[in-house]
Amino acid sequence: AAPAAPAAPGEQAALLAEMAAEGWPVYFDTALAQWQARDGRRLLSAAEIGAQLPTKWLGHNLLYYAEADSTNLMAKLCIAQQVPRGTVIVAEKQTAGRGRLLRHWVSLPRIGLWFSVILSPFAPAGAALLSFLTAVAVCRVIREVAGLPAVLKWPNDVMICGRKVCGILLEAGSDGQSVIVGVGLNVSQRRDEFPAALQETATSLALEARRPFDRPFLLAAILSQIETRVETLIDTGSAALMDEYRSLCATIGKRVRIDFPNSIAEYGVVSGVADSGAVIFIPDAIGAGGRAREVMAGDITHLRTQT
Fold it and tell me: 88, 72 in Cβ contact below 8 A?
């Protein structure tokens, strides 16, 4: 067969624009009037992120650190200094990154997005939903930009093909009305760049899509999705948000083990997620009568169904 004819300049430009919208590290250089490739592992910069940010208020005060112990800890210091609502703290590297249940989160430079968002004012009841809202926002960006089948594992883990790609940590600010939402998203890691203990359970966007991604573009897209859902939560309540969460939650219908804070574990099935964010859990235990109850705190493990 004859080789395919090279694309016309207009077709090339359209293809490159489509690639940019899918998060590839390419951009249009207005000075040169041509498309250019970028290093997907270049260092982040506040200016580059800000130039791509489509939000009305979220991230307009963006603080970038080459290294921080934890962006959530930096956010707590920022709240004490009365930074504006919607401040975003981004670190290239975290030396003490944390996930839920005080688990360590490996946060090396150039390969992920490690950031925290300061949202206020939120009463405690509404604040809990910000974790679910953020998980939905990240999941949507991965599905729509990267084209990957991301789903949610209760309460806020983002998973691709059974492996974790993103974790979210919600913490209260010291002023009693601010909420800190910390996000860790694995973007460019190779398999051997994860600790040995995580190589079978963690993944990155690059591993799953087998291509590079532009981190500033992804961060701007995620912040836009978070802002949209925060405004929806404030304006119309949580019903639409939780419907969207349930549509993406892979825990619903799964047989699970729940490890409770008191070190007791129970087995059963998750039949749904309530509007409060609690899982509706039907335990196996005869003593529990198999009756459904709502569970808001616990660590869930999906169990394989025996066939």
Answer: no
Q: For the whole model, what pTM was predicted?
A: 0.92
Q: Sheet of 157-160: strands edge to edge?
A: 62-65, 88-91, 112-119, 179-186, 163-172, 157-160, 150-153
Say yes or no to pLDDT of 4 above 90: no
Cα torsion 151, 156, 158, 162 to 10°: value is: -70
**Rounded Cα distance, 33 and 41, in Å:** 24
Radius of gyration (C-alpha) of the chain in whole angstroms: 21
Region 53-59: mean pLDDT is 97
The whole-number pLDDT of residue 103 equals: 64
Q: Helices 239-248 and 129-141 meet at what angle, rounded to 10?
A: 50
Instruction: Give the Cβ contact number of residue 195 at 10 Å.
Output: 9
Name the band, by pLDDT with cuts 50, 70 and 90, for residue 206: very high
Within 13 Å of residue 76, how many CA atoms lie on the same side as its CB?
10
CATH fold of 46-248: BirA Bifunctional Protein; domain 2 (3.30.930)
Q: What would the CATH number be for the domain defined by 255-302?
A: 2.30.30
Residue 99 token pair? 């996930």
Sequence spans of domains, the chain: 1-38, 46-248, 255-302
DSSP state, residue 291: -
